[in-house]
Amino acid sequence: MLHYAVVFLVIALIAAVLGFGGIAGAAAGIAKILFVVFLVLFIVSLFFGRRRPPV
Fold it and tell me: 33-39 — which CB contacts under 8 Å span 24+ positions?
């Protein structure tokens, strides 16, 4: 998921350099959403991840 966020960020940067403001804004918005979803899933996995039973 983090990979897709970075891909959309690169697309947004390239579109902004080339002057496509609408596409750049949309791609940046998608990148932000994917990054937030990644952070939420990462934090949830830290708290509820598999724990090994004590030996």
Answer: 34/1, 34/2, 34/4, 34/5, 34/8, 35/2, 35/5, 37/1, 38/1, 38/2, 38/5
Say if residues 42 and 5 touch (Cβ distance below 8 Å).
no
CA-based nearest residue to 9, from 21, 17, 18, 29: 29
Q: Convert the pLDDT of each residue in 13-48 to its tens digit.
A: 999 899 888 888 898 898 899 999 999 999 998 888
pTM of the model: 0.73
The token pair that represents 28 in the structure block: 């940046």
